[in-house]
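Troubleshooting: if your tokenizer reports a length mismatch, compare your output against this known-good record of 161 residues.
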Amino acid sequence: MQMKHSKSKFLHPSRRARRGQALVEFALVVVLLIGVVMGIIEFSVFGKNSLAIANATREGARAASIGRTTAQIRQRVKNFAAPLSVESPNGSVVIEVSTNKGESYSTLGDNGTTENAAAPDSLVRVRVTSQNRTVTGAFGAMFNRPIQNTVTMRRENTSGT
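Known-good structure output:
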């Protein structure tokens, strides 16, 4: 006995079913691509902000090492970190001095109105913190966090000798 070959609709889906499948696959690819693009954007902005804080910290430490006042140091850090906030509540600038080769640090003050109170050859340390904010909101846990950097330099003798 011979069986007739019948075309099953399960073996050969209709054109409409194939279009529906293509649409679902396309939607999945688009969602995946949007996620990748949002991740790239967040990672790029986080990297840019990290570099801005690193540069601002270095500039602040340099200003401290040549004897600028603490107000001038803070202003320099703020200018180089812009548009990020390094002021409370979203950030901070801590300026410290060590007279014992970095074993301990204390808050750096000013010596009058023209320069800071760090003695020549002491270590000055500037620590800058700023809160990174996500752009897209997609990866908040990974990128919505504080960025911190610390730079230590030796206080130069600025008396001209």
